Amino acid sequence: MARQALDLFDEGFQELTPSEFFRKNKQMLGFTGKIRSLTIVFHELITNSFDAAEEAGILPEIKIDLKRIGKDHYILRHQDNGPGIPEKYIPKVFCTMFAGSKFRNIQSRGQQGLGCSGCVLLSQMTTGKPVKVISGTMENGELKGVKMTLKMDVKKNQGLILEKEEVEVDGTGVCIELHFKDVSYSLSEQGAYEYIRRTMIANPHARIIFNDPTGNRYVFNRASDVIPPMPKEVPPPPGGVTADDLIFMAKHTDKRRFRSMLTSNLSRMSSKKIKELEELTGIDLNKRPKDMKWEEAEQIVEAFKKMKFMSPPTSGLIPIGEEQIEKGMKEILQPEFTATVTRKPKTYRGGIAFIVEAGIAYGGNSGRLVGDQRKAEIMRFANRVPLTFDAGSCAITEGVKSLDWRRYGIRDLENAPISIFVNVVSTNVPYLSTGKQSVSPEPEILGEIRQATMIVARKLYKYLRKKKAAKEEAQRAKIFETYVPVIIKQAALLAEREEPDYRELLDTVTRRAKLEILGESLNE
Fold first, then answer.
1. Per the annotation, does 459 bind a ligand?
2. Which residue among 276, 306, 336 closes a domain?
3. Whether residues 301 and 385 fall in one domain
4. 175, pLDDT greater than 60
5. Is residue 406 over pLDDT 90?
6. Does the annotation flag 523 for ligand binding?
7. Are 301 and 280 in contact (CB under 8 A)?
8. Of 14-23, 25-34, 362-371, 488-497, minimum mean pLDDT range
9. 105 or 82: whose pLDDT is higher?
């Protein structure tokens, strides 16, 4: 019986490649529901194009064609003007899970290495069709183009090249063509069009041309020619590491001593802090890293919690900036009023640095159009990327809605023509799930979201107050303009005198009314 059980175990034991795992668990890539799945595809392709172009110092330009060829069956063609992908890397980029350059402690739009390959996997799972890729690159000063037809071998987690040929290209960049079924294009708040619209507000330096399945052509022009500076990789703060992190560092470091490993792999770890750490733990940090025991690593982590460190370096955080957010809002929303703010860096959970940015737009095309009425919308972002799903559990939603908007002149936030923009910037945004659509309500982050939103809300209140005063002044001036001529004319008749020129008097009266309402000095 024991032998039979062992044989059954041997027969049933399997090892899954990353591709096989995500084939069985595609919801972990965000592919749940028809609308969401297509929006996630747009997200992955657009963010990869942005990252590639910006790293090469190129202003991103993307053209997207989405064609419907059957019920819930689409062909997506996505083309960018980035530096292109060298021929030998094309199968890895599009057909290998966990292959990429985003596994560092650096601010990034994406961090899992699953973007393009995840889209190819979804396409293959729903249609069985291969992916077609055209890549143009500059090699030794010469423009080269290659066209490949690929399929993903999920058993081996690698790409199979079905066809390959050299082609002429107009410039550098990548064009990818994918088939999808069981997805749906929608103009809803969670749809692909809205994702592009919000992306352009947070990335005003980009240009996107989108041809949708209904025949509409949308051109989102860039509002800025400034390419964002590239963030720098920064060591993690001591307060944010675990015992497992220290053991992992010790196994893979090239340093000979544990103390030198700590100073080179963690931020703000000086020789003085190393000495303090030795006094707190009693551990000889001159030992070899591989000799470090788990219990000692736990002691070090506990000691970190008792020590005081300088604020972590923020050179690795690149916010959008107040001016750029305002440009993006004006280009897309054409509001009558905007206000923006970028807060100073703060830390959460033991020293992880983050920055919160906020903006508010009022009037014009602000808010979301529901029927004939514009209602308030909360635009949530993390590292410039729109978060279009799971809004209810997000710290951004909680922070914005926690304000008493009546104090800022908004009696009913839900039905106000307002767009509220919030962007969380960090090397380690605390998401609530693998779908990365909702920010965890860390107390420090929640507090900064509230503070940033209050600042722009106060600016809106001042504008609305002046607007109301101007309206009242206009109404008062209209009364004067209507009745002053009548009174002067009748007075002249009663006095049997010639009617005087009253225009200077009228200007003075209406100006006085305006100044009184606005609380300004008559001498200003």
1. no
2. 306
3. no
4. yes
5. yes
6. no
7. no
8. 14-23
9. 82
